[in-house]
Amino acid sequence: ISGLPLLGPVRNQVLKESKRQLDRTLGPLVQRFLSGYTRVAIRQAVDFVVSEENASAFGKANARLVGYLLEKRTVAEWVPETETLVEW
CA-CA distance, 20 to 73, in Å (whole number)? Predict the structure, then answer.
């Protein structure tokens, strides 16, 4: 259909505009969804690695991991948002 003289360009334009509108509408929602769950997963992994039960198993790896995490973000950035704290 894309190769037809009249219908092709119209179809391509409709598809292009539909994709743009979908990206504009759903893009931020998908991004918030993924970042929220990624944040939760990272926090759970950190809690597991730095827990007292696992301290002997991880030893030096704990110090390296915490050092790496603090290089990437400040301590304040690791504290959950107020909304998240209320949910807990």
Answer: 33
Q: 18, exposed or middle or buried, with CB in 10 Å at 0-12, 13-18, 19+? A: exposed
Distance of alpha carbon 55 from alpha carbon 25, whole angstroms:
45
Question: Which residues, 6 or more positions from 66, have their beta carbon under 8 angstroms from its beta carbon?
Answer: 50
Q: Which long-range contacts (CB under 8 A, 24 or more apart) does 63-72 make?
A: none
Q: Report pLDDT digits (tens) over 16-42.
A: 999 998 888 888 888 888 888 888 888
Distance of CA 83 to the CA centre of its chain: 17
C-alpha angle 77-78-80 in degrees, rounded to nearest 5: 95
Rg of the Cα atoms in the chain:
23
